[in-house]
Amino acid sequence: MENKVRVNGLTFVPYLTHDVIMKEVERVASEIREDLKGGDPVFICVLNGAFIFAADLIREIGMNEGKIAFVRYASYEGTSSTGHVRQLTGLTEDIDGKDVVIIEDIVDTGLTAVKMIDDLKKHNPRSVRFATLLHKPASSRTGFTPDYVAFNIEPKFIIGYGLDLDGKVRNLKDIYVIEEEE
Ligand code: 5GP
Fold this sequence. Notes:
By secondary structure, the chain is α/β, with parallel strands linked by helices. The protein contains three helices and ten strands. The radius of gyration is 16 Å and the shape is globular.
């Protein structure tokens, strides 16, 4: 793990190591496996940020009958939410009558989650569950609570393990938090 990461003039410090992340990914995977018990769910990965979490999570869940689909939403500019959620890429997989598990990187205000669940329910799934790597309960503007959470965290800006700053640093294996001003 790097001591500090500098990107776009901001400094980030270590927050969650890859080993700690993988332990919680295993826990969440076993919860989902238990709840879906041998079905044929559709996992919906929310691009771009969730692609690394989704890749690790679905391999850990290990359900060969499951399918994966991708949707893309945007609400963030730089390090804060615009409060306006836009769908950039819609669903391509048929989810009619299916158990759906949305896989998201982070729930902050909850606005993206609520909009996404609303959009998906129009496609008539049997059930919709929501798994997130990170949840910032203190930032909620919706009262939305995910079904599966790897980490509840403070309302600070995070990068790494798929999460970006202006499209950069998604490659980092560990998670970093923005350095507090002294
Ligand atoms: P919400 O709609 O819940 O406010 O925000 C969800 C989206 O905002 C996430 O999918 C993610 O793209 C972005 N986001 C929220 N907090 C953070 C953060 O701390 N770091 C990064 N990189 N993105 C964030």
